TrEMBL record:
Keywords: DNA-binding. SUPFAM superfamilies: Winged helix' DNA-binding domain. Signal peptide: none annotated. This is HTH-type transcriptional repressor NsrR. One of its GO terms (molecular function) is DNA binding. One of its GO terms (cellular component) is cytosol. It comes from Rosistilla ulvae. Gene3D superfamilies: Winged helix-like DNA-binding domain superfamily/Winged helix DNA-binding domain. PANTHER family: HTH-TYPE TRANSCRIPTIONAL REPRESSOR NSRR, WINGED HELIX-TURN-HELIX TRANSCRIPTIONAL REGULATOR, RRF2 FAMILY. It comes from the Bacteria.
Amino acid sequence: MKLTTQTDYALRTLMFLATRTSRANVADVASLFGISVNHVAKVVNLLARHGYIRSTRGIGGGIELALPPNEIGLGDVIQAIEGDLHLLACVGTDRGCAIDAFCKLKGVLAEAERVQRAYLDTVTLADVVPTRQQLECIE
């Protein structure tokens, strides 16, 4: 599986927010990671729609985690941002192809996807979040 840049930015944003005790802003995330503010804003919008972060507008506003880090599963975040994670188009559907009647590859890839997702479902944001000091070293 290769994740999109959008998922990479989403995971980085969540990791950043998990190190904060107060609200941050999109520019803080963008500056730390050297990412465009527009890209971070799009990711923040997606994360908010999926309930992982809260976004508050206006004076004193900003972004913050909507859930504790140990309640944010990486498998769920990746699935929410990526959507279809199938290795081949035929995996996960009943549609077949010319070799469907005897194809063993579809089953192998489906099992690989299952194992991968099962593992990612055991990992939470709390398991991968750096310390605030580690992040400050890259600023």
